[in-house]
Structure formats: C-alpha cells, structure tokens
Write a structure and sequence with these properties.
By secondary structure, this protein is of the alpha/beta class. It has one domain: Aldolase class I (TIM Barrel, Alpha-Beta Barrel). 48% of the residues lie in helices and 17% in strands. An eight-stranded parallel barrel has the order 1-2-3-4-5-6-7-8, surrounded by five helices. The relative contact order is 0.14. Bound molecules: 1-deoxy-D-xylulose-5-phosphate and the ligand NCC(=O)COP(=O)(O)O. It comes from Dokdonia donghaensis DSW-1. Homooctamer; tetramer of dimers.
C-alpha cells in the first residue's frame, strides 16, 4: 500500500503571513490525519520561511501517523531531528536560498558524508530516506550510503506528464526496479498532484509513500481538504 504523507509547509506559509497562529498548524496536521492522511511531512528550511524549528518540536507530540522531517543535513537540522525523533528523516541537498527543493543527491560524491549522517539517525531509531533523481548510478550509490529508503524526485515526471506521460515515467520505472532489487524502500515526491499521481502510483512497483504538499494545498483551496485527501487516497489504492 502506498501511504499519503501530506506536506504542510504551505499551511505554515499562510500562518506566517500575518505573524499569528491562523491557521493553527498543529490543528491542521491533526485534522488531516482524521481525514485519512497516513503521514505528515514538514521541511524546516534554515531561513524558517514556512515551517519553523519549533513547529517540528510541537508536531512530534501531535502527529499520530508517520512523521517525516525533510531537509538538508546541516548541523542545526541534524540536531533538531535527533531531538524530535520523527518516524522518518528525508535528506534533501537543497541550497539555503533555493526557492524549493530542486535536486537529488549525488550519492557517489557525497557517499561518506551521507553514510555518517544516516548511521547517526538509524542509531537513534529514525528511518532514513534520501532524495534522489531517477538515475541508476545514484540509486546504486544510495545503496552504498545505507539509507533505508530513497525518495524519487518527481519534478521531471510532473513536468513531462502532460506532454508524454509514457516517456516521463520511464526513468522512474527503471530506477524503482533497481531500488527494489537492491532492497531499498521507495518513496516519491515533488510536484505530484491529483492529475498525475495515479499514473505514477500504478506504474511504480513497491511504492511505499508519496509526500505531497504544494498541489494538495492549491487543490484544497477549491475543493477542501476532506475531498482532496479522499481523492488522493482513492488514487493510491
Ligand atoms: C523535498 C521536496 O520536494 C519537498 O518536500 C519540499 O519540502 C518542498 O519545499 P517547499 O514547500 O519549500 O517548496
Ligand atoms: N517530498 C515532497 C514533498 O514533501 C512535497 O513536495 P510538493 O508536493 O510540495 O512539491
């Protein structure tokens, strides 16, 4: 079964816009779980543009499904994850000033660093995932790092979906089969949406989790959280 983990970064964006606590991030996370979300994902960036480090500390006592914290493993992030001990940590190599996550890891070049960080999280009982492009050498490199899972970076799939979905999905299928052969769990995320998620899910074997935020929030502005979450769950059956 593929779990839906809802990324609530953009709820924090709206909250921060007025400096208060509306919408209440903790209540939204809890309500999303009541509506069927099987995980909550956050990505506390160094500039705390949306999710704040304190949000992670508060959410760990609220989230009852799977709690996934994503981020670039700078020391401040490592310390936060070891302090809060979420279900999963997803390591993302994005630059501090990146408008959003925009690259997968070079798991060959950064093997030693990733191995060291991953062991530290695993020793704390935290499942580890690393954000990668669907490139076979990077999947093989991910195996070498000891990560429990990979998260396939799906922006390229989403970009190509409308034009030619059969072509857009090809590298992801190949990468997924290799990951499965290597015994690595498969997550996926970035720019997945109600339009493109079903085809991805139906094409990728052993897909354990999708984390979806930006599109889900935009879709919910029109349709509401309950309808949108239910639609995602139906497409992930
Ligand atoms: C890693 C990834 O693709 C997303 O999880 C990321 O959290 C999106 O970040 P923003 O919400 O800041 O665009
Ligand atoms: N890891 C992907 C994620 O959490 C959400 O990405 P997006 O749906 O906001 O692009």
């Amino acid at each position: 079964m593929t779990k839906l983990s809802v990324n609530i970064n953009k709820v924090a964006t709206l909250r921060n816009a007025r400096g208060g606590n509306v919408p209440d991030l903790l209540k939204v996370a809890s309500d999303l779980e009541k509506m069927g979300a099987q995980g909550i994902t956050i990505h506390p960036r160094p500039d705390e543009r949306h999710i704040r480090y304190q949000d992670a500390r508060d959410l760990v006592d609220v989230v009852t499904t799977e709690f996934n914290i994503e981020g670039n493993p700078i020391q401040k992030f490592i310390d936060l994850v070891l302090e809060t001990k979420p279900t999963q940590v997803t390591l993302v190599p994005d630059a501090v000033d990146a408008i959003t996550s925009n690259a997968g890891w070079d798991t060959i070049k950064h093997k030693d660093f990733l191995k060291e960080v991953i062991v530290e999280f695993q020793n704390a009982g935290i499942r580890t995932s690393i954000f990668v492009d669907p490139v076979l050498e990077m999947i093989e490199g991910a195996k070498e790092t000891g990560a429990d899972r990979i998260e396939l970076y799906t922006e390229a799939y989403a970009d190509g979906y409308t034009e030619n979905k059969e072509e857009a999905i090809k590298p992801y299928i190949t990468a997924a089969f290799l990951a499965s052969d290597l015994g690595i769990g498969i997550n996926a995320g970035h720019d997945l949406s109600l339009d493109n998620v079903a085809y991805f899910h139906n094409s990728i074997p052993d897909l354990l989790e999708v984390s979806i935020g930006h599109a889900l929030m935009a879709e919910s502005l029109y349709l509401g959280f309950e309808t949108v979450v239910a639609s995602y769950l139906e497409k992930l059956q």
